[in-house]
Amino acid sequence: MSYVGKNIRKIRTVKKLSQAAFAELFGLARPSVGAYEEGRSEPKMETLIQIAQHFGLSVDLLLTKELTVNELYHFDIFKQEVTPAQAPNSAHADQQAALTPFVPATRLLEYIVQHHNSAFVDALPSLTFPHELGPTTRAFEIVGAEMQHQQQGLRHQDVVLCCRVDKAAAAGLRAGRIYAFVTQNSLLVRRLAERLSATVLKLRADNPDYGAQEFALDQALEIWEVKAVFTTHLRPPSRIEDRVTRLERQVEELLARLG
């Protein structure tokens, strides 16, 4: 059972927003808000994420728990809007080169909503990797096999180590490199094929079963460059590698006899 309708009504009440004003905030029709509150329909995931992000809540809470006014008070819903000049300091973990906040697949949706929240980032599990990538890094768990081909590449449940790319410096993205794009719906890990324009990229998966796609940079909440991967998949040598190894051994034996 979803509590999203009741929670939207409660949020509107404490924020003194009419259904029309709430609808305008998220580009909705006023009757849609009424339908949500009466349980006749539910918002799309994109709308849920926007609502959660706007009010500093978690999508999981919106869906699975009827929130009380006291609970809402502990979130950002009663706080004033934060202007860029007033923005809080970066996460403590992002100021330490030895710490890399880890985003497991099970917490990706939370991260999408709370990625800008330094307290949330600091509460994520942290990994320590030997690297010199700078303090602002992330580790994301890969879901799916889009970046795997012939036992090579990024496998399902691999963990990629990434460093931040400033969105203002997105012009410096380089073809052939792998990037992780945090969007409002998912984590998109792809190789940059080419830049189609100043604002549109052509991305491709390493797995040829998945086609290339166009990606507008304004869809990205964050951009990370993949620098390394941690995997628990131990790949056996391929047939060619095995044959080369045997040939090398035979050559060594022949040279030893001749010598």
Description:
The chain contains nine helices and eleven strands. It has helices at residues 4-15, 19-25, 30-37, 45-55, 59-64, 69-73, 108-114, 118-123, 239-258; strands spanning 100-103, 126-127, 137-141, 148-149, 152-153, 159-165, 178-182, 187-195, 200-204, 213-216, 222-230. It is an alpha+beta fold and 259 residues long. A hairpin with a 2-residue loop joins strand 4 and strand 5. 32% of the residues lie in helices and 21% in strands. Helix 1 (4-15) crosses helix 3, helix 2 (19-25) crosses helix 3 and helix 4 crosses helix 7 (108-114). The protein has a nine-stranded mixed β-sheet with strand order 2-1-3-6-11-7-8-9-10. Residues 80-88 have low confidence and may be disordered.
